[in-house]
């Protein structure tokens, strides 16, 4: 069995927009290095100042160096059919796989990460960065942050790891069923093994325990593992994987409950790597307020986070159509509802004169009574129901409650007569969550598709 111990230097942190400036490959037979290869590479793009400060490689050094295409075949032949070994292997592998693919070569290697191996075989170190780990183990590094120097140090470290492996850990990691080589370097495989094949919400955390991503899953283990498959070279993915140190989870009874919990957790925690759910909000709401003359007025306005809306809409037109229906049905004043500036279409307009509220002829008490009737009817049209579904285990049910058209909360129970006395007795047993139109639409759509799970309250 042959190993290719690899280190590269690059112009940046992700393969899709950055080049390789240096490659070093040590072919290792499990006992010693049997062949070495190193070369500078002209990336055909400027070297950033901070990269030069770190590696010492500048533009002038690479003027006469070969391009990657010039050496691609040689690199491919060295790596092909070998086990690809590197410190934080997915970084080096993603760069070489991407640039080899651009040159026409499909690299397919089994991988070993010396960060992950060191955590297993040499536990208890304060840091597993190559420099600090080598210092702790008294492994000499010549030309730190240069490909050949780091590859040589990684080769010595790999020798030590092979000697320490008395329980066949390396062989287990190389099994096709292991999948360990695809995991981020700092994420313990045990945390993946603990994940159940159940719906729920998972939390990725960084080295300090800060939550950096929240996701939902129909199958927690499958979904979390799917984050680490493939070798997508873009910056966002590579930086995301490098920051994952821990994963926690919460089991939910159903995928719908996981969706709802995910939406609330993203709003509560605001993780830096969640984007789509942060942006979701309905754009317009229907509000009621009292003007200086005492008239209650309805208005469609832009969504305001902390205001209580009567109804929410995706568009201004949708809101105006709803309000126009209210005006016609309850003979409200279109002008007081901001639907028109003149009184020419007012229901109380006759012979050029208005007899309605906007002219002050219709009294406050009469007009407000009509508007309150409209508001009461809107409230009556808002549904109140419970969805009873599967629980987290066989002897458990889940309960999800909507009250007066707003999501109230959800929880779990074992008593089949749980809802026999209505909503009031069970409220204290539910976890209360904030309602929004996204969540309500999820629930209403699910209730429509599964009417057998619906209990009217």
TrEMBL record:
DNA polymerase III is a complex, multichain enzyme responsible for most of the replicative synthesis in bacteria. The epsilon subunit contain the editing function and is a proofreading 3'-5' exonuclease. One of its GO terms (biological process) is nucleotide-excision repair. This is DNA polymerase III subunit epsilon. GO terms for molecular function: 3'-5' exonuclease activity; DNA binding; DNA-directed DNA polymerase activity. Residues 197-275 form the GIY-YIG domain. GO terms for cellular component: cytosol. CDD domains: DEDDh (cd06127), GIY-YIG_UvrC_Cho (cd10434). DNA polymerase III contains a core (composed of alpha, epsilon and theta chains) that associates with a tau subunit. This core dimerizes to form the POLIII' complex. PolIII' associates with the gamma complex (composed of gamma, delta, delta', psi and chi chains) and with the beta chain to form the complete DNA polymerase III complex. InterPro entries: DnaQ (IPR006054), GIY-YIG_endonuc (IPR000305), GIY-YIG_endonuc_sf (IPR035901), GIY-YIG_UvrC_Cho (IPR047296), Ribonucl_H (IPR013520), RNaseH-like_sf (IPR012337), RNaseH_sf (IPR036397). It comes from the Bacteria. Pfam families: GIY-YIG (PF01541), RNase_T (PF00929). Coiled coil: none annotated. PANTHER family: DNA POLYMERASE III SUBUNIT EPSILON.
